[in-house]
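Question: what's this shape?

___
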Amino acid sequence: MADHAKTAAAVLTGVGGESNITSMVHCATRLRFVLKDEGKADAAALRATPGVITTAQAGGQYQVVIGNDVPDVYAAIQAQTSLGGGAAEGGDSGPKGNLFNRFIKMISSIFTPILWALAGTGLLKAFVAAAVTFGWLDATTTTYTILNALSDALINFLPMALAITAARYFKASEFTSFAIAGALIYPSITALNGQPDITFFGIPVTMVSYVSSVIPIIVIVWLQSHAERFLLKVLPGAVKRFLTPMIVVAIAVPLVFLAIGPLSSLIGGGLAAGIGWVFQTLPWLGGAIMGGLWQVFVIFGLHWGLVPLFQLEYQTTGQIFLLGPVFAAVLAQAAAVAGVLVRSRNKNLRSLAAPATLSGFLAGITEPAIYGINLPLKRPFAFGVVGGALGGALIAMGGVFSKAFVVPSGLALPALLGNGNMVMLGIGLAVAIIVPFALTVVVGFTDPVDDTAPAAPAATDTMVLSPVDGTVVALSDVPDAAFADGSLGKGVAIRPTSGAVYAPFDGTVVAAFPTGHAIGLRGVDGVELLIHVGLDTVKLGGQHFTLKVQSGAVVKAGDLLLEFDGDAIAAAGYDLITPIVVTNGDLYPDVADAASGPLSHGETLFRAVSVDSLTTAR
């Protein structure tokens, strides 16, 4: 079973600690951080962390790709820190970046907290619609009325949900935002949509529908956040707490009705018309772009910029043509990784490919397939892009659309059934699956060969020598919770008295961090060790450290690994205490015979106890 707490602790350390985090949210597969200084993040350490697939930087966020377990790791980080709940905060804090990155960050932060609820209710709506289409459910019955209401409520009242997430992002009052959104979709206001001769204090109002709308509430909450900060500064303390929301609501709602709503309706209608024109005039082109490039957009986090377009198209037309080709994109990458599963002879690769295939086809979660397999192997990812483009073009040519916002996947296919040419949908999906699968199996890829190597010997206890001169300290006394509670592994710590680190056994350097503050080793018996010089010393960016080896180097016990200037590091305000921990606790779950007091490098520090010896002892 995955140790989510251990993964969470390592991720926190890898992103520079809690103090370096401005905000944190998660989406389907990624932890999305806004960091105060991305230079403090240790990508190599993060990618080497069990449970982490890879890292990415896009849209003003530092993203740690976890896969399907991301909610559990997110919850574990919350338990270990004071970071807030699911709120996406920090709209005006942290690095600004360019306007495009800031826009992507904003959309991601506002939509992420409601994405799964939106997708889940959308999937239910798709099943209900399919049941009506195939005659399994009568749309005149009260059963349909109830099912339709519970599947359609969130999308209908979307402005109220977005009011909360937008308020958290822009640091506005959530319930004032909620009041504004409620006014926009109040029944008597909704009934005015399309009615003539509507005025507000004699000013003509063009009333539009705010049901399922996106732009008006986001814009007005942004304005609300600035108005609130101003009013809270200038109003007397005795009245500002109730006068501020009163003034904001009294101004904001009419402002939406008079200007923001009609303008956003015009923009949304234009965008929807433009999308409709492309998919009617050059459907193959629109489908090929969405089907071929969607997963590329996902890699860079740019797909968030398209999510509002899905909603705008739905609000304006009740249909989402953009979504059909995305099914081809998702299933194509799943098919490519299925091809890897069939073709590869690498046991480790196949063990990754099997769950990635299932996750991609059924749930539409393709990050494990893309980052773990298809992208590293290159060709399968390219074959997936080709299959997605061809399948997407055919689906779009069939005029296929969705009547609900869903996460494209095999389970969500009912969202497309009965909407457009079903023959073209079937052909498009078949092409999207067959082409990348066949190309991956027939053309192939460079298969990592390691399964022909002799089986690894059973783990045996390993004597670990002291890598530094100094005084032994119990790991529980290290002033860093991730080390002190053993989350990062069992071991000890040393307060160095000299500035050199030596190999504690014969083995291989598996991680020589560019900043020089830490080094990872694997012994010939299989034990894996992390030597971390000082606490938070990654923030020095390599200053005062000099690496003497590189990743992959074969070393003997006593070989010099790195040098550091302890006096300069201490003068910079960093604790030099050096944790030395065993990181593969599944094979070496304990340490024994730990030394105490002063010792020199090369003297026995502790014995890494293997799981085999523990089993034999029992």
About this structure: The longest helix spans residues 240-281. The CA atoms of residues 610 and 616 lie 10 Å apart. Confidence is low (pLDDT under 50) at residues 85-95, 451-457.
